[in-house]
Amino acid sequence: MKPAAFEYHRPASAADAVELLATLGDDAKLLGGGQSLIPVLALRLAVFEHLIDIGRVDELVGIERSDGTVRIGAGTTERAVEQSAEVAEAVPLLARATPYIGHVQIRNRGTVGGSLAHADPAAEYPAVALALDAGFEALSPRGARTIAARDFFTGLWSTALEPDELLTGVTFPVWGGRCGFAVEEIARRHGDFAIAGAVVAVQLDADDRVERCGIGLIGMGSTPERASDSEEGVLGSLVTEIDPAEVGRVAVADLDAIPADLHGSASYRQQVGATMVQRAWRRSVSEALDG
Predict the structure, then answer these.
(1) Fewest CB within 10 A of the end CB: N or C in the chain?
(2) Residue 85's beta-bridge partner residues?
(3) Would you call 108 helix, strand, or coil by DSSP?
């Protein structure tokens, strides 16, 4: 099938894109890398009268490190993140999650902002953003604001962005000290969305106690999920006395919207999700202890 007819717009700047959004209203849709939107349009699962192509707005592209953070422009491709030595050093969890996204051809076109704004609970970047307490930069005719990751994802494929807001960038804190990071997921085939998965970041103090922890869950709810109970349960504890299996069990124990489909029941996903957390916890702790 082919998309329904639409009017194509190509703004020269983020401000122009926001102005178009405000003027055209609900009949308009932003187009970045198009890896999620184009298939939806081609199958006519959605129809828009106007497409606003922000794929060539240079100010939305780039990776910059400063003041203990790394800012990534929303239009930066996933492949650029994957190849960035800066990201690999400063935000290892993001770098390690990126190769799990589709195939290299998809990462060549797909963008950081597109993945996050699409808010698929089975995607890797939303889980990383939650685990690391990322900040989302949004621009509208009213000005710019920053949305905390914990407030950004509001439902299935929905976010806290207003209809006239454009995601311009995302900022990740740089963790220091004795840290470890790991990504674990299971999928039917390489490049498929994960059936279940987890991303873990852990920081230890000089006495091997958990000083900081972030656990994001992949494919475990109607929204991207963070395992806050597990995080709180390990803080301040001697890492060698923590049972990884218990960390995994607590992480998925109270989830109430685990999906069930032809790839697996909710109970299967819960069991697999716990195992993914357990594995990622072991790997991240091992790295932190060696640091």
Answers:
(1) N
(2) none
(3) helix
> How far lies 124's CA from each of 101, 119, 171, 192, 275, in Å?
7, 10, 16, 11, 17
* Phi, psi torsion values for 25, nearest 5 degrees: 65, -145
Tell me the whole-structure pTM to 2 decimals. Answer: 0.95
Confidence of residue 291 (pLDDT cuts 50, 70, 90): confident
Our separate counts of H helices and E strands in the chain read 12, 14
Whether the CB-CB separation of 220 and 252 falls below 8 Å is answered with yes
Per residue in 68-98, pLDDT tens?
Answer: 999 999 999 999 999 999 999 999 999 999 9
| Cα(136)–Cα(146) distance, integer angstroms | 5
Report CA 29 to chain centroid distance, whole Å: 21
CA count, 13 A, side-chain hemisphere, 133 = 11
C-alpha dihedral, 182 to 255 to 152 to 164, nearest 10°: 130
CA distance 137 to 198: 25
Is the per-residue pLDDT at 1 higher than 70? Answer: no
Average pLDDT value for residue range 6-12: 95
Residue 73 CB burial class (10 angstroms; 0-12, 13-18, ≥19) = buried
Given phi > 0 = left and psi -120 to 50 = alpha, else beta, which region is 228? alpha
* Pick from 157, 152, 172, 148: nearest CA to 121: 157
